[in-house]
Amino acid sequence: MPKENAIEAAKKIKMLVFDVDGVMTDGSITYDEDGKEYKTFNAKDGHGVVRMNKSGFITAIITARNNGTVQHRAKNLNFTELYQGYKYKLPALEELMAKYNLSYENVSYMGDDLPDICILEKVGLACCPNDAVKEVQEICNFKSVYGGGKGAVRELCDFILEAQGIEKEYIVCEGNNR
Predict the structure, then answer these.
(1) pTM of the predicted structure, to 2 decimals
(2) Read out DSSP for 7-32?
(3) d(CA 104, CA 119)
(4) Domains along the chain?
C-alpha cells in the first residue's frame, strides 16, 4: 500500500519519535582514549523539538545505543520520553502508543537505517534525512532535504507545524541587556 500524502499524514500527527545516530546526529561516533563516546547535535534541530513540545506534541527518542550524551540532550530539550538500549524498536513504540492512547496514524518517526524500517512501514508519517540508506528512503513519505544532524529534524518539525496551521513563534529582541 503506498504511503499517504505527507501533508495529509502530517495533519494527524500527535507524537514525533526520533532515532539518534544518523538522524539527530550525522552518524559519527567519536571515542576518546578511555572509550568515552561523544556525539554532536544540531542547535536548529533542537529548537524544532522545543517548538514541538511547546505546541503540545509528544516527543520521544528510541535508540539502540545507551549513552549519557543522549540522555543529557533529551533532558536539555525536554523530550517527553526517552527509550535507550532498545535494539528492537517496535515494542518501545507500541508501549508509547498505548501509554498515550495513539494509533500509528498519529505517529511520525524519523529513521535512517535498516533497523528503523519495521517502524517506518507502520507509522502515518514515515520520515528520513536525505542521507538515509536507500531502503529507508524508498518507504518514507517525508524525506528531508537535509542530512542527519544537519537540519533534518528541524525541517520535519516545521513541516508538521505548518501542515497543522500552527504559527511559528518568533522571539523579538527588545531593550538593552547590558
Answers:
(1) 0.92
(2) HHHHTT--EEEE-STTTTS-S--EE-
(3) 9
(4) 6-163 (3.40.50.1000)
